[in-house]
Design goal:
- By secondary structure, the chain is an alpha/beta fold.
- It folds into three domains: 74 residues, no CATH class; 89 residues; 184 residues, von Willebrand factor, type A domain (Rossmann fold), CATH 3.40.50.
- The chain is built from 18 helices and twelve strands.
- The chain has a six-stranded mixed sheet with strand order 9-6-5-10-11-12, with helices on both faces. Strands 1-2 form a two-stranded antiparallel ribbon.
- Helix 14 links the parallel strand 5 and strand 6.
- The longest helix has 15 residues.
- It is globular, with a radius of gyration of 26 Å.
- The protein starts with 7 loop residues before the first helix and ends with a helix.
- 38% of the residues are buried.
Length: 421
């Protein structure tokens, strides 16, 4: 939205999202997701000027934009009060009513009662009350992704610790439930990140230590492999190219200790192999041209990897570790596909923070490949630890740079090569 205007079509589309939501679901959205990426619901509603005759919806919109007992300036300059004028006026919208009451709570016991009565989510609880009692009240109905994110907090406050068998069993059962994994659409990479963070026994910046419970570690590992079954396939013919240069073992992805670019790229390869029917995986470093400017692959600069969908993560990483290392040339995958006369719909290149070390740009190599096979090919270049780089041609709708990498990246990549973005 920061790169386009607020035309009528966009405003109407967003207004429709608000107007067609079930009241309870809309209340959950405005309470749970109060702000994202610098935007709040208040910002959006003030842009779209949504109109409706539904009194309950209008009450929610007034609460979002002006709060309880807010005042707005009329066109003639006078001040007028907006509804709702009191917390009690929100009683018919239970979640918002409970949220407002939680703001006035004086202790954890009050908050626990409100959680039980109004099913308040974590985001509705004032930070100062996030202790053992409150986490304990939230735990039974905590959504899957929220549970994964809060494992460290649950341990820090003393809910997950050795000897708390009932609480540990509850969490283990929720994490390893295939139904929960399927409904939440948890990507394996999310679980691997959670495993690395929780298993380290401290937060990403080294703050907030906790006791690591072995059963939770085992549950995350089990869920990681189970989650592959619920990744939605794209149906495309995909070449996934792993940078196998030495720098892939350095640094960490998304600030997660122990999650190297090599491990993250191995997971992406495993997801492709398990979810898709038509795929190939190659490892690449760099190549050279001879004195006659003919391309040749030096020291196994790119080659297919002997990987199987049945392999475990450590086996995949071990296979990649045994390859010869060199520089990084992101043009190689398209060159290889052209020379091998392999027909792909998409090429996904996973590197750390490199662009290319050869004498032909990846975009140029892709164009040559497209000319040979006779159709456009999606190309995504992912620099998992990059801060500033560009490989893809910004003018090409089928090319995408992903700078940095977190748990949302796989879904973005999948939607892009499926043509949904």
């Amino acid at each position: 939205m920061g790169f386009r205007g607020w035309g009528r079509g966009l405003r109407n589309g967003i207004a429709k999202w608000y107007l067609e939501k079930d009241i309870d679901k809309l209340a959950l959205q405005v309470v749970k997701y109060q702000g994202r990426d610098g935007w709040t619901h208040r910002d959006v509603l003030r842009k779209i000027h949504v109109k409706t005759n539904d009194e309950t919806l209008n009450k929610i919109f007034a609460w979002v934009t002006h709060g309880i007992g807010g005042e707005v300036k009329s066109k003639d300059g006078t001040m007028r009060k907006t509804f709702p004028q009191s917390i009690d006026s929100m009683k018919d919208i239970k979640l918002i009513y409970g949220f407002e009451r939680a703001k006035l709570a004086e202790n954890e016991d009050e908050v626990v009662k409100l959680i039980s009565e109004y099913n308040l989510p974590r985001e509705a609880i004032p930070t100062q009350f996030m202790g053992k009692k409150v986490y304990g009240a939230l735990l039974p109905k905590m959504p899957m992704t929220a549970l994964i994110r809060n494992l460290g907090n649950l341990s820090k406050v003393g809910i997950l610790k050795a000897g708390n068998f009932d609480e540990i069993k509850l969490v283990v059962d929720k994490i390893t439930s295939e139904e929960n994994l399927r409904k939440a659409r948890v990507h394996p990479l999310q679980l691997l990140m959670a495993l690395k963070i929780y298993g380290a026994g401290h937060g990403m910046r080294g703050k907030g230590e906790w006791e690591v419970v072995p059963q939770i570690v085992d549950a995350l590992d089990e869920a990681f492999y189970k989650a592959f079954a619920f990744v939605e396939p794209t149906g495309k013919r995909i070449l996934i190219a792993l940078d196998v240069s030495g720098s892939m073992t350095m640094n960490c992805v998304a600030g997660v200790e122990g999650l190297t670019p090599r491990a993250a790229s191995a997971v992406m390869a495993m997801v492709t192999m398990k979810a898709e029917q038509n795929w190939a995986v190659v490892g690449f470093t760099s190549g050279r041209r001879d004195s006659s400017h003919n391309w040749y692959m030096e020291r196994g600069a790119i080659s297919t990897l002997n990987l199987s969908p049945r392999m475990r993560l450590d086996d995949v990483e071990r296979t990649v570790d045994n390859l010869p290392f060199g520089g990084t040339d992101c043009a190689l995958p398209a060159i290889w596909a052209k020379e091998q006369k392999r027909d792909f719909d998409a090429i996904i290149i996973l590197t750390d923070n490199e662009s290319w070390a050869g004498d032909i740009a990846p975009t140029q190599a892709l164009k040559q490949y497209e000319n040979i096979i006779g159709h456009s090919v999606y190309q995504v270049v992912v620099a998992m630890t990059a801060t500033q780089y560009s490989v893809a041609d910004p003018k090409e709708a089928t090319q995408l740079d992903v700078v940095g990498f977190d748990s949302s990246a796989p879904a973005i990549i999948s939607d892009f090569i499926s043509g949904k973005l």
